[in-house]
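User: For my dataset I need records formatted as: sequence, then structure tokens, nothing else. Please produce one.
Assistant:
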Amino acid sequence: MAMDPAPSHRDFDANERRIVHFTGFAHAATHYVELIYPTLAVGLVAQSPGVGSLEEALSWSFGGYLLFGIGALPAGVAADRLGGRRVILTGLVIAGLSTILAGTSEPGLPLALALCGIGIGASLYHPAGTGLLSRAVAARGRALGINGIYGNMGIALAPLVTAFLVESIGWRETFYVTGAGILVGTLAFSRFRINEPGRAPEPAQSPNDVTTRRAIWVFVLLCAAATLGGFAYRGNTVAQPALFAQDISFMGYGLAASLAMLVGTVGQYIGGRLADRFDLRVGYLAFHLASLPALVVIASTTEWPLLIASAIYAFFALGMQPIENSLFAALTPERWRSTAYGLKFVLTFGVGSTAVWMVRAVAENSGWHAVYIALCVVSCALIACIAGIFVLTRKREIRNTPEPSSQALAS
């Protein structure tokens, strides 16, 4: 069924703009705080004799990344019942306070526990924020694309700013400054008054519906693809600063990582616009297929080719996210939207957190480039899952459709 393209072209109204910018700040802060540690660990090991290897220090982040995923499901349930805004603000406060606590912690188990607190706080954003956007903004794909740009700015700035702060003031002080910045920003954005949709009644059959059994298998394959994508995302973000520190000599590893990730902001915008215009399955497959050659190059090059290939990978691997989130929205009822996103982010960030151990094992035995050979295998399995979605849905297109309006719940 062809979709009316009008929602992707009209301007956001005032409430939608507030929602887009509020969730955008939260998305940026969430990704920034959850990604400072891989870069900070490089400086921590250099500044703290006796701490151990970088591979060991990076493994302390596993608990935080696991909770970053596991916390998403209860966060989604809470957002469907209490509203996304409350859940988002609560998560930001927990993440900010835990980041300050990390600055007071000793390397090893105490620091790992503080990183767990960051993971819990950060886990609350994605199901609440993505669910809120998908329900409350008519141009869903464009809103998710802009939200992705905000998030990718957090991803891109985290290694650059963290490397600068660690080298300038030390790793403990970097935690303090980061935590304080999140709390100040949260206080400012808490003043935004937004109206979010109330819970919708059970919907009538959607144009995107397929037969029940087939729809279940489509959703299972989509979850599997998202899980593999989350594993690849975590593997890349953990390994990239160390790989760049080893194999890029013409600029600092923090700046190099930020430049690569910044290219992903363009991919996020384009992916968001495409999500409102074309069959979501086609865009999802195309972006993942295009990212695979870049992984092959990353696994076999150094210096400028390594940086360029990493930027291309970021363009497609991050650019597919608005398309993936739109697929989840198209295949789930509105009233359980945040819960569905909670399940998704448990898989992408929770199961995906096990990539920390893969990175440590592969890097210790075969080197940092070998990590990306492993990620090539993961990407091939992901593409196979998407091919399965095409087989099950056959010629039926899956497109973004605007949500019916519902009564607003003032927050």
